[in-house]
Amino acid sequence: MRLTCTVNGDRHEVDDVWEGESLLYVLRERMGLPGSKNACEQGECGSCTVYLDGVPVCACLVAAGQAQGREVGTVEGLAGPGELHPVQEAFLEAGAVQCGFCTPGLLVATDDLVRRSRAEGRRPADAEIREALAGNLCRCTGYEKILDAVRLAADRMAGEAR
Amino acid sequence: MSTPTRTPAGAPSSVGGPGGRIGDDAQRPDGVLKVRGEFAYASDLWMDDMLWGVTLRSPHPYARIRSVDVGPALAVPGVHAVLTSDDVPGEKVYGLELADQPVLALDVVRYQGEPVALVAADHPDTARRAAARIVVDYDVWEPVTDARAALGHPTWNQVHDAPAAVTELSRESAHLHPHGNLVRHLKVRKGDPEPTADVVVVGEYEVGMQDQAFLGPESGLAVPGEDGGVDLYVATQWLHVDQRQICSALAMPPEKVRLTLAGVGGAFGGREDLSMHVHACLLALHTGKPVKMSYNREESFFGHVHRHPATMRYEHGATRDGDLVYVKAEIFLDGGAYASSTPAVVGNAGTMGLGPYVVPNVHVDCYGAYTNNPPCGAMRGFGSVQTAFAYEAQMDALAAELGMDPVELRCRNAMELGSETPTGQVVDSPAPVAELLRRLVAMPLPPEPATGDDVDLRHMPGGVSNTTHGEGVRRGVGYAVAYKNVAFSEGFDDYSTARVRLEVVGGEAVATVHTAAAEVGQGLVTVEQQIARTELGVDAVVVHPKDTAVGSAGSSSASRQTYVTGGAVKAACEAVRGRVLERARGLVGRPAGDLRLDGGKVVSDLEGVALPLADVLGDDAVEETVEWRHRPTQALDPDTGQGFAHVQYAFSAHRAVVDVDTELGLVKVVEMACTQDVGKAINPQAVVGQIQGGTAQGLGLAVMEEILVRDGRVQNPSFTDYLIPTVLDMPPMRIEVLEYADPHAPYGLRGVGEAPNISSGPAVLAAIRQATGLPLRRVPVRPEHLTGT
Amino acid sequence: MRPFTYLSAPDVTTALRAIATEPGARLLAGGTNLVDLMRQDVERPTTVVDISTLPLDEVQELPAGGLRIGALVRNSRLAAHPAVRSRYPVLSQAVLSGASGQLRNMATVGGNLLQRTRCPYFADGTAACNKRDPGSGCAAIGGFHRGSAVLGTSEHCIATHPSDMAVALVALDAVVEVQSLRGTRRIPLAELHVLPGDTPDVETALDPDELVTAVELPALPVAASSRYRKVRDRASFAFALVSVAAAMEVADGTVTAARLALGGVAARPWRAHLAERALVGAPATEEDFRRAATAELATAVGRPQNAFKIELARRTVVATLHQLTTEGGAA
C-alpha cells in the first residue's frame, strides 16, 4: 500500500509498504530515519517513542496504515541541521547518554513533559518527571543523570519565550 | 570502509571538543550523534539491495534432530537462501574458551533456542515466515535441568556424551574438559583443613538467572567482499575474538574476515559470545549480497548467554571477638548447554567468593556444570555478583550471632594493603575496604518514612500504584562490599594494541587513536581522547573506527579497557611523543631534556622554546603502534587454588535504605549510597555514571530480575515479563569516589564498571532483612517472600 | 506476521459490515495488544479493520447523571477527564496504574476491555494453551503460574484478564454498548467477560459481528469515595499480581454502600458481590473488612506458585477499605 504522512514537517510518500509493517519499521527502513529505536518492539521500553499528531506513542505498535495522513515527529526533528535542542544539550552535559539506545525515545518523552509543564507555566517536580519517564527503560545510567538532564532542560526552557 | 547507513556522517563525530584531559568531565565524542538520532547502531545498518537474515531455533531444550527439510522455505517467493550446519564450511563448533557450541545445530540440540537453520530473504517478515516452514523432525529427550543433579546424576554424561559414566564429583580429569557435565571445578585450600571456631554460621543461598537486558538487540550487517572474503559490521565486545571464531567457522584467513564495530546499544557481558556473526557471514557469502540480521527482543533472550544461576552453601567460623577463622563454601554455577566463559566465571566465583575479608583458613569448591538450560556466561560482575549475595548475608548473620554491628565486623576483617587473599596473593595496592564502609556510615541517612498527612504516595512502596500509605511500613538499612578482579586473570596473556598518529592538518595538530577496543556505552572513546590530549598536548583527537585493521584490544569486559587499552594508548602516545621530541631536538639543536608537547607546540619552560608542531612535522605524520600488557598473572595451583592470579582488585561499598510494606510485600528502595575507590578518575562524570548504572542492575537482580526457566524452557523472554528497574524504582544516590592510586596501573587508575554492580544488590537484601527479620535466602526477592503468604 | 488485508473503516457501518462478512476480520483500535499478538503469530486475522478514526471518542454526560464513554476514548484522556477524576476517581487511578504514558496515549477503552490475557503460554506458540489452540491443554497448570488466576478457573485454563481499567469499571456497574448490523444491545460489564469453563477460547459474550461502541457509567454517589490499589513486581509498568477497586460510604461507623472488585485473580474483572453483601450494614472495622474479603475468596483455588495471591488479595482489600474509611476517596 501507499503511505502518506508528514514526518518532522516534511511530507513523505512511500510505496509498497506491507500492511504488517509498523510505523517504526517504515520510519527506520523505508524513510531513512533510524533515530527511533527498536529495543523491544512490544511497547515495553519506550525507545521508539515518537509524536503522533503531537502525542507521544510507541511507534512499534502503530500499524503502518494508522499513520496515514498523520503528523509524526521523531528525534531527528527535535532540532534543525547543525543545531541541538535544549533537551539534547542537557542530556549531553548531564552525562545522561551512555550507550544511547534509549536516548531518542527519552528525548521525545522529555520534550513532551517539559513542553506540557511550560504550557502550564511551571517546571516539573521530580516525582512528575519520574512518572512521565516510567515508560522509557534505560539499562546503562540508573536514571540519575537522566533526571539531572530533565531538570536542566526544564530550567533552561522555562527561561525561553514560548 | 565507513559504516554503511543512511544517516548523514557527521563530520565532527569522532573529534571531541577542546579540553577534556585526564581528570576532566570530558564529553563523549559520539554524544551529539546519539542525541540527534544519527549514531549508527548495528540495527540501523542499511545497504541498497541488502537481504534480511533470520534464525530458526529449536523449540526443545534437548532433542536429536532426525531430519531437516528446508524445501518449503526455499519455495517462498523472496527467499534467497536457506542454510543448515551442512553449509558451514569450516569448524562446525565454536566457543570463547572451549569450542563446543555448534554454529548451527548438528545432530543434537541442547537448549531451547539453539540455532538450527538460517533464511535470507528480501523482507524480514518473508524470512520469518519462510523459517517457520522449515520442517525439523525432533526426537525429544528429557532435559537435564539442575546443575547439582547434572554433576551427580546417573546420566551425568548425557549432555556432552562423555565416554563413560563417572560418579566422583571432583574428578580431576574432567577439569576444563569438553566432555562430561563438569565444565570446571575450582578448589581453593588454605590453612588448616579442619579448623574450629567459637561461633559458626551456616547458610544456603540461591541466585536466579539474570539477563543483561541491553537495549540494542543483537544485530549486524555482513557484506561479501570482492576478494571472496566478508566484511562484518557488528555490535560486539571483542572484535578479534569474534574474528578468530568466524575465521574458524568459515575456514578463511583473518585478512578475508574483516570486522568493524557498529554502534553498540549496551553489552554488560552479553556480547562476548558470538550471536549472529557467523550466520550473517554465511548468508552473505552464499547469496553474494549484503545480509542484515537483527534480533527482536524475544530472540535476544535466546540469542545471548545470561548470568549463571547459583546455589551456594557457606559456613563461616569466627572467634568470639569477631575475627574470621575459616570459611567453607560450596558453589554450584549452572552453565547451561555450552561452556561459553563458564571456566573463567568459576575462577572468579571461587577466588572472589569470600569477599574482601582476610580469612586464614579456606576451603572452597566451585563447580560449573553443563545442563540443558540456556547457556550462561559473562555478565557484569562475572561470578562475583552471585557470591556477594552469599558472603555478605553470611557476614550479617555472623554479626547477629556475635551481637556485633555488621559494619564493625566487616571493618575488623577487612582486607587492606598487604593483606593476603584466600588464594595466597598479597594485596599490593590500596584496599581501603574499611574506609569505604566508614564513609558510608558517616553519610547522613534519608529522613524517616512519612506518616499520616505527610505521606506522599509516590515515595511509598508501590509508588504510583497507590499501594501503601505508611501502614505496616518498616525501614531497613543494609551494607555490602564488592571485591572484583580487574582485567583477565589466571595467566591469560592480556594485552591491548593502540596505534596513535600525530600530524598537522590544515594548520592544526591532530592526533588519531586507532584501537579495536569496543565502545559499548561506557565511554572508552572519551577516555582514549582524554589520554591522547593529555599525552600529546593537542585538542583535536580523532577516534578511528574500531576494526580489525589494528591488533586486538581484548574484550570490553572485566572492567579492563580503561586500564589495558588506556595503558596501550598512553604507551603509543609516549612513543609518538618521543619521536616528535627527538625531531624537535634536532631542530633546536640541543639536548633539551625538558621538552614537552602542549597546545599543539613543542614547549620548553626552561628555555622558553615554543615550536609549532607544523614546524616540527611539516607534512609528515608520526605513527606508532604499541602492544601493551599489564603485569603477568599466573595460573592457580590445581590442588589448592593458590597463586598470583589477579592483577588488580576493585572495591566498592553500598548502603541501601529501604521501606518495606510487610503487609503487601512491596519494597521501596529509598536511597542507595555508594563509595568506590577508582585509583584515578579519568573521567569523573563517567565514573559516577558507571556507579549509578551498576547500582541499578544490582538492585534489579535483588528485587525483580530473573529469567524463569522450567524444564529447560524460558518462560519470560520479553520486557513484559522480564522486568528491569524503571526510573520509578531507582532512588536518589549519594556517591563518594576515592582515588588511591594503584602504583602498578596507568595513571594509578582502577577498573570501575563492575564493582558497583556487585555490592548494590546484597546491600538491598541486607536492608530488607533488617526491615523484616526474614532470612531471605533467595534472590530476587518477590512480594510473596515478604508477606509469608 | 501473516499477510492480511488492511481496511481503514470510514464509518461504523463499514466496520460492522466487514466483521459481519469476514470471519477472519479483527478490529484494530489503539493497536497496543493486537499488533503485538499478530507479530507473535498468536492473532492471525485475514482482514484488519482499523476503527481508530471512527467518531467514538467522546465522553458525554448522561441525562440521569452518568457518563457515556466512547469506545475509542484513549486511556490517557479518560484518566485526565475532570468528570472521571471527581466522580469516579477509582477509574482514573486504575487507568493511570496501567502500562506507560505512551501506551495510555494509544490504548482505547474498547481495546482495553477486549485485550487478551498476558499468560506467557498464550503468547508462546510452542506451548499448550487451550485459549490459543483449543484442546491442546494448559501449560500454566503444571508450569509457571505465579501470575495466574485463583478465582473462577477451570482445569482447562487459569489465565487472568490483565486490565486495570476494567476492574474499576466493573465495580462501578458499567454497561457496555455493543453494535452490529443487527442492532444495538447493552451488556453489563460484569457479564462481558466469561469464565473459561470448558471453552477458554471463548472470552466474551460478544458475537463475532459485534463492535463495542461505548461504556456507560451510571450515576453512583458512592463512587466519589473510591480507590484503586495495585500490587505488582515493579513500581510501574507491570501487570497486577492483585488489584482492588473499591468504593464505600460509611455513616456512624457502619458501611452503608460498597462496591468492590478484584483484578489479577480471574479471567475477568472480578466483581466481589459476596464481599459487598458482607460489608453493607456491618461495622467499618478492619476485622469486618477481612471477613468480607474472606467470604469473597472462599472459593479461591491456589496453586503452588500463586497461592500467595489469595492472602495478598485479602490484605489488599482490607488496606483499601481501611484507607477509604480514614482518608476518603479523593485522588
UniProtKB/TrEMBL annotation, chain A:
Supply the CDD domains for this chain: fer2
One MF annotation (Gene Ontology) recorded for this entry: oxidoreductase activity
Q: What is the protein's species of origin?
A: Geodermatophilus saharensis
What the entry lists under PROSITE patterns is as follows: 2FE2S_FER_1, 2FE2S_FER_2
According to the entry, every stretch annotated as the 2Fe-2S ferredoxin-type domain falls at: 1-78
What are the UniProt keywords, alphabetically? 2Fe-2S, Iron, Iron-sulfur, Metal-binding, Oxidoreductase
What is the protein's name according to its record? Carbon-monoxide dehydrogenase small subunit
**Entries under SUPFAM superfamilies matching the protein:** 2Fe-2S ferredoxin-like, CO dehydrogenase ISP C-domain like
InterPro entries in UniProt: 2Fe-2S-bd, 2Fe-2S-bd_dom_sf, 2Fe-2S_ferredoxin-like_sf, 2Fe-2S_ferredoxin-type, 2Fe2S_fd_BS, Beta-grasp_dom_sf, Diverse_Oxidoreductases
TrEMBL record, chain B:
Identify the stretch annotated as signal peptide in this record. none
Q: List the Pfam families hit by this protein, alphabetically.
A: Ald_Xan_dh_C (PF01315), MoCoBD_1 (PF02738), MoCoBD_2 (PF20256)
Q: What is this protein called in UniProt?
A: Xanthine dehydrogenase, molybdenum binding subunit apoprotein
Domain Aldehyde oxidase/xanthine dehydrogenase a/b hammerhead: where? 36-142
Segments of this protein annotated with the region Disordered = 1-28
InterPro entries from the xrefs?
Ald_Oxase/Xan_DH_a/b, Ald_Oxase/Xan_DH_a/b_sf, Ald_Oxase/xanthine_DH-like, AldOxase/xan_DH_MoCoBD1, AldOxase/xan_DH_MoCoBD2, AldOxase/xan_DH_Mopterin-bd_sf, Xanthine_dehydrogenase_dsu
Q: Which organism is it from?
A: Geodermatophilus saharensis
Alphabetized GO MF terms: iron ion binding; oxidoreductase activity
From TrEMBL, chain C:
Stored Pfam families: CO_deh_flav_C (PF03450), FAD_binding_5 (PF00941)
Q: Which molecular function GO terms apply here?
A: FAD binding; oxidoreductase activity
Is Oxidoreductase tagged as a keyword?
A: yes
FAD-binding PCMH-type domain span: 1-222
Per its UniProt record, what InterPro entries does this chain match? CO_DH_flav_C, CO_DH_flav_C_dom_sf, Diverse_Substr_Oxidored, FAD-bd_PCMH, FAD-bd_PCMH-like_sf, FAD-bd_PCMH_sub1, FAD-bd_PCMH_sub2, Mopterin_DH_FAD-bd
Which keywords annotate this record?
Oxidoreductase
Q: Gene3D superfamilies of this UniProt entry?
A: 3.30.465.10, CO dehydrogenase flavoprotein, C-terminal domain (3.30.390.50), Uridine Diphospho-n-acetylenolpyruvylglucosamine Reductase, domain 2 (3.30.43.10)
Entry keyword annotation includes DNA repair: no
- Supply the name of the protein: Xanthine dehydrogenase YagS FAD-binding subunit
Give the species this sequence originates from: Geodermatophilus saharensis
